[in-house]
Amino acid sequence: MSLPKIEMSIFEAILARRSVRSYTAQQVDNLTVRTLLQAAVRAPTAIHQEPWAFVIIQDKQLLLSLSDQAKPLFLAQVSQHARERSGHRLDMFEKPDFNIFYDAGTLILICGRTTASFYEADCWLAAENLMLAACAMGLGTCIIGSALPALNIPEVKTRLGIPKDFSVVVPIIVGYPTAEVAPVSRKPPVVLTSFPSAISN
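User: That's the sequence. What structure does it adopt?
Assistant: Structure tokens below.
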């Protein structure tokens, strides 16, 4: 498969990656999606089990339907205490017109075969590969954890063609950002212990 030319080093992509929540109407084409999946499956995998599988959703009506189904289920799982401490505005989930997928045209579900050891860890590693590749290609991504309560309901899995022995682990929206997203500060690495000598923070 011919891959798009990428003008960004891996460390530049790590520093440039953002969680994007505003997208243009431009659709992500099939070649780009396949390229992102190729990046995903090159992730490390425990005992070489490669437990991942993918669902690609680019049907906007289906995305809106899943958003409407997910919002009340997510709020029901979040306690009032968690709402007060959260850095996100969870009151948005009560608004009928709020789309948890932020109007992105593509949702990629990374699913894991639940019988595999460490399938969740493998899927998260695949997600990081996918997001860094997307960033290097000029795309935005965002993990939508609030969708998980709905996506793993048996009837929803059936609707999406997900077998019973698979679970949705990472839902990621992908698209073209409407604007550049400012970097978010990060705390310096916390080194608890270093042997034989300490590394200062």
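Residues 10-175 form a domain with the NADH Oxidase fold (CATH 3.40.109.10).
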